[in-house]
Amino acid sequence: MKSIKALAPATVANVSCGFDIFGFAVEAPADEVIITLTSTPGVVIKQITGDGGRLPLHASSNTAGVAVEAFLESIGSEQGAEIVLHKKLPLGSGMGSSAASSAAALVAINHLYDNPLSREQLLPFAMEAERIACGSAHADNVAPSLLGGFVLIRGYAPLDVAKIPTPPNLYCTLVHPHLELKTEDSRRVLKASIPMKDAITQWGNIAGLVVGLMKPDYGLIMRSLHDVVAEPIRSALIPGFENIKAESLRNGALGCGISGSGPTIFSLSTEYSIAERVGKALQQQFESMKLKSDVFVSKINDAGARVVA
Amino acid sequence: MKSIKALAPATVANVSCGFDIFGFAVEAPADEVIITLTSTPGVVIKQITGDGGRLPLHASSNTAGVAVEAFLESIGSEQGAEIVLHKKLPLGSGMGSSAASSAAALVAINHLYDNPLSREQLLPFAMEAERIACGSAHADNVAPSLLGGFVLIRGYAPLDVAKIPTPPNLYCTLVHPHLELKTEDSRRVLKASIPMKDAITQWGNIAGLVVGLMKPDYGLIMRSLHDVVAEPIRSALIPGFENIKAESLRNGALGCGISGSGPTIFSLSTEYSIAERVGKALQQQFESMKLKSDVFVSKINDAGARVVA
């Protein structure tokens, strides 16, 4: 039977001022999914590597499995699928681990059927998978992982996403300290209401970030990458966050913040060499707190998940 | 002595989802200011027409006067100026009346000195004039009146404005019902804090509006022109607002909202004929409530205030 491999990238949700509505994809790391069609119905997770045995092997509990089941049902297929998942993204890291698995699986299965659905049409299936993984069908990781680049999720009723042209000179540093935060814990610390003046600051900044990305105007991007809503609260869950952020900016990053709900820290820079320097500096900073960390430096991924030979 | 006339356009602040950070300029109406340099120091308001005698003639209490005083001081001039102001904008209408007078005055006086300052550099003087007129040095009317087009005021500490390219097919209808709201009253009804979910909706929409304007994507502009923060509260001060808005959309407008703090209603449309039809429909709607109204239909003004022969 036909078999195909696809990769889907890690993503940064929120992007400081874009809490709950914004995300972007990076080149590395990326989850790998290999899908083989089967003549009998049903989706089976055949193997998962790289997860330390922590991910569920039952298809209906696994984001890749759920996404493929939803896809097959939507096109009325009577075939089934076997899934092999090579996790390259750390779990619970705030890098969109669950999203990358479902995005890769969807791009693979769609390809096996000669791409009957567009990337936008695959989104709802990936969102259903997010519901399984995180408890809510949010799109701020799955949309950039599928579409690539910076993606605005304007709203959900109905789903309204807009991809923003990727500026040419933008590099991301992801530093993942080895401590685990649960998304639910990160959400729980947020408040149900916010001061009007903070809200105005935040929407001035997200508008500024979007204008900066689209012009592009790197100075405006830099001035806009501030979060007065989630970061002041969530950063308390990340040891030494203030120093980490200051170190990133001191090394030349445009901005630095919490990736998704953390604990991964993202920084954006206008040169690869700066992004690398920032990575090393942040890793040392975590080391000084006896925390190991992984560093990923890459361009913005403009194409999203992709099929590989 | 040298004399010059300048026009500065009416402006729509807030633009639904851009509360306190966004505004745009229209072609009509526009205030006219004639400035004559004098050999003796001091700024004198020589004449004001069109205000029904309501504007202060003392230069330091008048937005045009304050702006010119600040300009002359900044360039260290030992000359003075005489100002004639022909008000074309209704006062207290939410169309940026005070801003148009100071913007026109600044562009005129700057021209008389061979433009030593850029439009951006004139902004702080116009903001000082706003402080006299409205009690706060906000920029969401003066920035678009000086710069033209759609302008983001990302923040004030320090002032950070970004002009957004004007989409080719965008027309504005302003309908000014003859009832007066004081800006202070309109601000007073707003709450000091807002639900997080409303804030997220609002910043999704302002980001969507900016992306829509810049692409341009008129559908996205339409879907983004919603205000869940100020409009639900302020609209209570405008009789029949819900019907007015529904009538605007029914006649084909992309969106409709309160201009600034009201009572003027703005609508945006992709064709001049639609913008005209919307204007007539809204005027009739107000008429059915025994309210007279003025209607202004025009393109977006992309150049801002300008000197005329």
Automatic annotation (TrEMBL), chains A, B:
GO BP terms: threonine biosynthetic process
Cellular compartments per GO CC: cytoplasm
Pfam families: GHMP_kinases_C, GHMP_kinases_N
Superkingdom field: Bacteria
InterPro entries membership: GHMP_kinase_C_dom, GHMP_kinase_C_sf, GHMP_kinase_N_dom, GHMP_knse_ATP-bd_CS, Homoserine_kinase, Ribosomal_Su5_D2-typ_SF, Ribsml_uS5_D2-typ_fold_subgr
Pathway stated in the Swiss-Prot or TrEMBL entry: Amino-acid biosynthesis; L-threonine biosynthesis; L-threonine from L-aspartate: step 4/5
Enzyme Commission code: 2.7.1.39
Binding site for ATP: P90, L91, G92, S93, G94, M95, G96, S97, S98, A99, A100
Location relative to the cell: Cytoplasm
Ubl conjugation is among the record's keywords: no
Catalytic reaction annotation: L-homoserine + ATP = O-phospho-L-homoserine + ADP + H(+)
GO molecular function, one term: homoserine kinase activity
GHMP kinase C-terminal domain boundaries: 213-287
Keywords: Amino-acid biosynthesis, ATP-binding, Cytoplasm, Kinase, Nucleotide-binding, Threonine biosynthesis, Transferase
Domain GHMP kinase N-terminal: 64-149
Enzyme class: transferase
Main location: cytoplasm
PANTHER family: HOMOSERINE KINASE (PTHR20861:SF1), HOMOSERINE/4-DIPHOSPHOCYTIDYL-2-C-METHYL-D-ERYTHRITOL KINASE (PTHR20861)
UniProt family annotation: Belongs to the GHMP kinase family. Homoserine kinase subfamily.
Function of the molecule: Catalyzes the ATP-dependent phosphorylation of L-homoserine to L-homoserine phosphate.
NCBIfam families, alphabetized: PRK01212.1-4, thrB
Protein name (database record): Homoserine kinase
